[in-house]
Amino acid sequence: MRKAFRPIFIFLALNSAFLSNADDSAVSSFTNSNEKASERRIAGLWHDVNNSNFSNGHLIISQQGNQVFTAHYLEFKGTPFVEHGNGVREQDTITVEVKVTQQIPGWTTEGIHTLTLSDDGQYLIGEYASGGSKGPLKFKKAGK
């Protein structure tokens, strides 16, 4: 019986020596950066600050897991525009497929918004792609 336990004791001794000297800093720094990115708040109210042609613009984002949902209202040169969308969040970037429910004449009725949270967490900056066109988007966080 004593001989049967000897390999188990040797195995345990070697593994404990290996594990006590193991360095998982690369794994933990990767995990911490992912946790930090997912903890940064994107959900909430954002104001459209793209350019002076856009006024009274508001973007509401809600998040459940890695899924995001948006509602966006703006006025372009005084004409109202409304769209909503859903998409995904990967770290600090959201990609949202949007559908327009109140169109500005000549504008398309669907597209994709890709927005990335700024380093200071105060802006979402990116672009829209719609009907072969692309353009800038910029939102400033409202409140906390």
Word description of this protein:
The chain is α+β, with helices and mostly antiparallel strands. It has a domain at 44-141: Calycin beta-barrel core domain (Lipocalin, Beta Barrel), CATH 2.40.128. It has two helices and eight strands, in the order ααββββββββ. It has helices at 2-21, 25-39; strands at residues 44-48, 54-64, 67-76, 79-90, 93-102, 110-117, 123-130, 133-141. The chain has an eight-stranded antiparallel β-barrel. A hairpin with a 2-residue loop joins β4 and β5. The N and C termini lie far apart (66 Å). Residues 1-22 form the signal peptide.
Task: Kindly summarize this structure in a few lines.
By secondary structure, this protein is an alpha+beta fold. Helix content is 24%, strand content 51%.
- Sheet with the most strands, sense and barrel status: 8 strands, antiparallel, barrel
The proportion of strand residues reads over 45%
CATH-defined architecture of the domain at 44-141: Beta Barrel
Rg for CA atoms: 24 Å
Mean pLDDT comes to 82
Q: How much helicity do the residues have? A: 10-25%
Strand order of the largest sheet: 1-2-3-4-5-6-7-8
Shape from CA axes?
Answer: globular
State the helix count.
2
- Structural class, please? alpha+beta
**By CATH's scheme, which homologous superfamily of the domain at 44-141 applies?**
Calycin beta-barrel core domain
> What sequence of helices (H) and strands (E) makes up the elements?
HHEEEEEEEE
CATH topology of the domain at 44-141: Lipocalin
Q: What is the straight-line distance between the termini?
A: 66 Å
| CATH class label of the domain at 44-141 | Mainly Beta
